Amino acid sequence: MSNNEDKPRFSLPVHVYCGDTDAGGVVYYADYLKFMERARIEWLRSLDFELDALRRREGLLLIVRHADIAYLRPALLDDLLTVTVDSCAHGGASMDLVQEVRRAADATLCCWGRIKIACVDAKTLRSKRILEKLLAEIADVR
Amino acid sequence: MSNNEDKPRFSLPVHVYCGDTDAGGVVYYADYLKFMERARIEWLRSLDFELDALRRREGLLLIVRHADIAYLRPALLDDLLTVTVDSCAHGGASMDLVQEVRRAADATLCCWGRIKIACVDAKTLRSKRILEKLLAEIADVR
Amino acid sequence: MSNNEDKPRFSLPVHVYCGDTDAGGVVYYADYLKFMERARIEWLRSLDFELDALRRREGLLLIVRHADIAYLRPALLDDLLTVTVDSCAHGGASMDLVQEVRRAADATLCCWGRIKIACVDAKTLRSKRILEKLLAEIADVR
Amino acid sequence: MSNNEDKPRFSLPVHVYCGDTDAGGVVYYADYLKFMERARIEWLRSLDFELDALRRREGLLLIVRHADIAYLRPALLDDLLTVTVDSCAHGGASMDLVQEVRRAADATLCCWGRIKIACVDAKTLRSKRILEKLLAEIADVR
């Protein structure tokens, strides 16, 4: 939706295993945040950023400041899900990502989230400017 | 804050164990949702509602429809936290809860959330009216 | 090791995300069991068995009866792991699997487990004979 | 059982919340390890040892080297469990603990584990002698 034509939106396939479900037979509400985290990390990796390297080489952490999550349809055991990442806005020291979790079989939207990620100094935890090259990549993705 | 004088706000003490933290040395962002769930369930239990009994006797499920979570200060390994539940609004088939996670030692607010809970039929998953006696309890708590 | 030459041992790549680690900076000890479960389920899927279908069509559950886990070297954030499944023995109603979790980069063995899986009736939870075709597949894998 | 008469065995009450269960309606097999960890940490705390202080003041980590877990009866949503810790043996740099998870209502043994804990240097991760005062406490508990 917010992508240009050349760069498809990043998406990660995720299988729902037993450990991701609860006694209701559906994915436990906190586990969607794990799925979204996995997709964000693979998205960053696809842009050539690794969290551990960011921390060690640049002294930067990317931390979640805010998560706004809507639970729309339950995802079930054995479902294959598609988790997407869209960069929808960013300042100099934070970025807003929109993430969707859809059932792969029929594209049902199970869970939708807007996640604000802040860039902070790994030692002081104070806001720091996001690396230019990451900003450039995000701008490209939009 | 939103409580009357006779009924103190419900709060649950939670210890931070190793399994709740991540490599950053802080509570993992999805685990605050687990803490909040524990507090909601103990709050309901304190009002004499058990989820399992609600399902079996009344055919009702309480499910999370929306979670709006702000991460303010990191909670750390071995911290003793206080997780509160406040009922801030409700319709006939849903209720909005405000939940805070504070460090017990100094009342630092680590995480704040507004959680919308919907009451649904356990079989059809359609909205159902919340039990009168639960509504009455919630009204009292406000 | 225990495979014949035609059938390579089943293995699943697993990335270590933040949610899998603890404040020690390493994979949390319970999370290796999640990785092993994922590998077992994908292994079963590769043999054309889905847990959910087993339950609904055959009335069978596969449950873990025993887990013997040795923690040898810590797996770290951002590690790419390889999780394997070997069937090492089986009776009529249970099977023993050996599972290894290795760092993909250098094949370091991080965690080793022997898992006993029992086949039970989904309603009574009593032991039931494993499906012949699953036994045949396991025999093949040995 | 292995306690002397003056020192009762350490036990921790644990409620089963939705996030601890899986689609089978029972506690997920990895989550028993979380319950056992909580009991171990509270047991250590009751002996006046905090993991974080051990690490910072003494440069020591206590890590799990081996876990041997038998799953006997499923624990269910809303169950109140009792998780115990018994010290059954120790060398100079490790100790073996026996842990039981029982349903509080009827003392049904759900899960049994023997956990080997090693004491290591927080930096080198090499074996280090367990503090004398912890050894003394453990000896007392036996």
Describe the secondary structure blueprint for this structure.
The structure is a homotetramer of 142-residue chains.
Chain A: E1 10-15, H1 31-46, H2 51-58, E2 60-71, E3 80-90, E4 94-103, E5 109-121, H3 132-141
Antiparallel strand pairs in A: 1-3, 2-5, 3-4, 4-5
Structure, explained:
Four copies of one chain form a homotetramer. By secondary structure, chain A is of the alpha+beta class. The first copy, chain A, has a single domain, classed as Thiol Ester Dehydrase, Chain A (Roll), CATH 3.10.129. Helices cover about 25% and strands about 35% of the residues of chain A. Chain A has three helices and five strands. Chain A has a five-stranded antiparallel beta sheet with strand order 1-3-4-5-2. In chain A, strand 3 and strand 4 form a beta hairpin. The longest helix of chain A has 16 residues. Chain A starts with 9 loop residues before the first strand and ends with a helix. The relative contact order of chain A is 0.23. The N terminus of chain A is likely disordered. The interface between A and B is medium-sized, with 19 and 19 residues. Strand 2 of chain C pairs antiparallel with strand 2 of chain D.
